[in-house]
Structure formats: C-alpha cells, structure tokens
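Recall from the previous chapter that SMILES is a line notation for molecules. Here it describes fe (ii) ion.
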Amino acid sequence: MHYREYARQILEGGSLDDKLLSSKDLELSSILENYSLPKNPGRTKRLEINNEQIKFPRNTSFHLEEKRGLALHFFANHELLAIEMMAAALLLYPDTGRDMIQFKKGLIKTIQDEQKHLKMYIVRMKEFGVEFGDFPLNDFFWTWMDKCPTATHFYSAMALTFESANLDFAQFYEKSFRAVDDTKSADMMRIVLEDEISHVALGAHWLNQWKGDKNLWNYYKDHLPGVMTPARSKGIHFDKEIRTKAGLDQDFISSLDSYRDEFNVTNRKSW
Ligand SMILES: [Fe+2]
Ligand SMILES: [Fe+2]
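With both inputs in hand, we obtain:
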C-alpha cells in the first residue's frame, strides 16, 4: 500500500479498524498531489465528534473505577486525534526530497506508537466498564490542523506543544494511578511517557533542521498556529529534566519555563 492511501484510510475511514490500520510494508515514494483537509476526520456513529462539555475527573476521585475509566477515555480521545492529525500531516505536506521522506517515516513510526497507546487505553477502560465512545469525543486538537500550513507549524503545535505538555501530564497521572494502587494503569502512563519523549525529540530534531541559524525558541513561537501560545506546552508540574531528555536546549527550556500569559497554567487541571 502506498503511504498516501494508508493515511487517507486512517483519516477518512470511520471505523476504529481504519484508525488502527497497520503500516506494514508501506511504499514511501513521492507523489506530487495536493490534498484538502476534510472538515472533520471520518468517524462512525459511535466515534462521532461531539463537543458537549464533560469534566475531566479529579485525581482525588481516582479510587473509583468509573472515574479512572473516564480519565482513560479522555486520553484515548487524544490518541485518536493525534493519529488522525498525523495522518493529515502525511497528506498535507510535500514529500519531495529525501528530507521530507524521512520526515514522513518519522510520522508513520509515531502513528504506530499512538495506535499502541489507543489500544492500551481501550483495553484498560473496558476493565472499568467503559467502552470507547461512551462519552463525548471532542475535536479540540483537530481544529488547529487547518491553521498549520507547513510542517514547521505542525511540529510546533503537535510535538513541541501538545506532546510536550503530555510529558508533564503523563507523569502526573502515572502518580495519580499509583496513589490508588492501580499499577496497571500507572505502568501504561510510563510507557506513554517514554514514547512521548521520543515524539517530542523527533519534533525538536526537525525544527532544529529547518530553523537554519535561528534560535529555536523564536522559531517555535513564530510558527505556533493561530492564537496558540507556549503556555499550552506545559502540564501541571513543569519538568525541565525530561525536556532535556527530549533533546530541547537549555535556552528553549528556560524560556518556556518563564513564559507566562493569560492562559493560566496554575489554574489548569487537565488538558
Ligand atoms: Fe500517544
Ligand atoms: Fe505522542
């Protein structure tokens, strides 16, 4: 299967099987072809986008299985949106030149990881009596996609903002699950965290390649889509060390650390 066909099935196909499509034996060759983003990713009735507001459960309620199930349902939605957005990135950005083929290879590997996370969450929430689609699935991340005209915008938003925030969140929720002796869920968060470090590192690698002799922090800020700000790149407790591990330079990390804006991080309870 050509990688574009694979990406289209993931993005435009509606079923969970489409979203979990394997990337085995993909053909990666350049095709000059424009792609226009669909308004929404394809979704079967059960997985339909629904922006009805539901609250993320407080970790103080994590002794209740149903609350843990709901938390995992939120996480699974993030994975699903990440998979679809990465598939969209495969279709949107050019694939001419060796660099861009490498860029797409990295995306395909990342999609594999996100699919693994999605499957883990679905299996675990089932053990708590929650099926994927039982609660509303919002399109919060997806709405940024049409504001990312270049791969630089995409990685600034995806890897250096959303996935970077997840470096903090994954650790926070690992602890929260461990605090109620849910080792199974806690261990899953650890796996997600380890993968997320490599996803942030991949984004940092490409931005460093593309920025030329510019400063990474400025380059990143200049390519954040729409009204997105670096504040969204931080979770509940800002972890500098893990960002060093993800290959971000010290200047970038301290600029991010001291960044403040109206999106008040301290008032933030979840994504
Ligand atoms: Fe993930
Ligand atoms: Fe990720």
